[in-house]
Amino acid sequence: MRASRQRQQGVTLIGVIVVGMLLVLLTIAGMKVLPDVIEYYTILKDAKAVVQAPASRGATVSEIRQDYDKRAMIDDITSIQGADLDISKEGSEIVIAFSYTKKIPLAARVSLVIDFEGSTAGSTK
Predict the structure, then answer these.
(1) Total structural domains within the chain
(2) How far apart, in Å, are the Cα atoms of 121 and each of 19, 20, 118?
């Protein structure tokens, strides 16, 4: 009987609790970060849509910013506005670049800071 107990292997209750707590903490952090990541991809999508719009071909920088602001209002983007965009031209292609920092409070005095950057360079598809 004693020999069979020594051969038993497995996870202890404390091990299961620790792993469970880590999974819960990671899930909570993910739930707080996910909306900001989704907003970043929405900003990138709107910037690409502005660049690919036929009206943007002969548009001024001001008109491109206004077009982005209209799309951002529809998608409820609050992190960046048209005035924050870096608009340039590479060859015959309009390029919109942006960057911003987001501070996400996790718990008490603990926060996560993420630097988001994006560009429409090479998005003529």
Answers:
(1) 1
(2) 42, 43, 9
What is the gyration radius of the CA atoms in the chain, in angstroms?
24
What's the pLDDT tens digit per position in 41-61?
999 999 999 999 998 888 899
Q: What is the pLDDT of residues 4-41, one digit of tens each?
A: 566 677 888 999 999 999 999 999 999 999 999 999 99
The reply to whether 98 falls in a domain is yes
The parent domain of residue 50 ranges over: 35-125
Q: Which two tokens stand for residue 58?
A: 């002969």
Q: The tokens 């994006």 sit on which residue?
A: 118
- 24 vs 16: CA distance, rounded Å: 12
Query: Three-state secondary structure along 11-75?
Result: CCHHHHHHHHHHHHHHHHHHHHHHHHHHHHHHHHHHHHHHHHCHHHCCCCHHHHHHHHHHHHHHC
